[in-house]
Specification:
Length: about 250
């Protein structure tokens, strides 16, 4: 069972609804798509795990990298996920607790070595803020990773559907820091400086109504993609909206 995508006038797309079975499937190397599922899992969860270790265990950059590699090696080699069950609720919560248990054991051990072959590529900068709890930094990084993945998928879909102009407007308005800001928008977390519709319209030779329409459709589609990503990590579909609201502070 999935849902139809008609927001942008593209082809019908179906999102998978077999939740935990997809996640648990990363341990079965014989299953089709094993590598893709594994890569997707690691892309979304290595930054939250790394940031959690930095904040919660006060580790240096290199020590946190070593522990991150060791944790995901344990996840895959020692069948940590095999004990996860659908009645465990949200996979994010399950993995966070598994990480806590791993770090407690690691502190007791004399040494934790990074795997000879890295399990995950620790690429890119990770923001490790001060004044937040380890749980908060884990959740923020998890949401950031999901957003990055969802935005990347949105771009691919728009370009594939011949709607590059939608992406140009969306990127200029919300994602490009070099775009001149000219409007202040009030949000729950404070004021946000954004470009004006007129400046984006001028940049891409569009009307302001076109810009407004493209942005609305892109935001709607992005939320659907994000919901689908969250859907994979919960057992009860009714938890998706609650999970999004808690993460987005809505």
């Amino acid at each position: 069972m999935g849902f139809r995508d008609t927001t942008l006038g593209g082809s019908t797309r179906s999102f998978p609804t077999t939740q935990w079975s997809q996640i648990l499937g990363v341990q079965d190397r014989t299953q089709p798509g094993h590598r893709e599922r594994l890569d997707a899992l690691l892309r979304v969860y290595w930054r939250p795990a790394y940031a959690y270790i930095r904040v919660g265990w006060k580790k240096s950059n290199e020590d946190a990298k070593d522990l991150t590699q060791a944790f995901f090696a344990r996840v895959l080699q020692n069948e940590l996920l095999a004990s996860a069950r659908a009645d465990g609720g949200r996979f994010r919560s399950y993995l966070k607790q598994a990480l806590k248990n791993f770090l407690i054991d690691a502190d007791r051990a004399a040494e934790v070595r990074r795997p000879i072959e890295p399990v995950v590529a620790l690429d890119g900068e990770v923001d490790v803020p001060s004044g937040v709890t380890p749980d908060e930094v884990f959740d923020r990084q998890w949401l950031s990773c999901l957003l990055d993945e969802s935005i990347a998928r949105l771009e691919v879909e728009l370009r594939a559907d011949g709607k590059e102009v939608y992406w140009n407007a969306f990127h200029s308005y919300l994602l490009n820091p070099a775009t001149a800001k000219g409007a202040t928008v009030a949000t729950r977390s404070g004021e946000l400086e954004l470009p004006t519709y007129a400046s984006v319209a001028s940049r891409w030779s569009l009307s302001e109504s076109d810009v407004r329409n493209y942005l609305t459709q892109c935001r709607t589609r992005l939320r659907e993609i994000l919901k689908a990503a969250v859907r994979v990590t919960v057992e009860d579909p009714r938890d998706v909206e609650e999970e999004l609201r808690s993460l987005l502070n809505e």
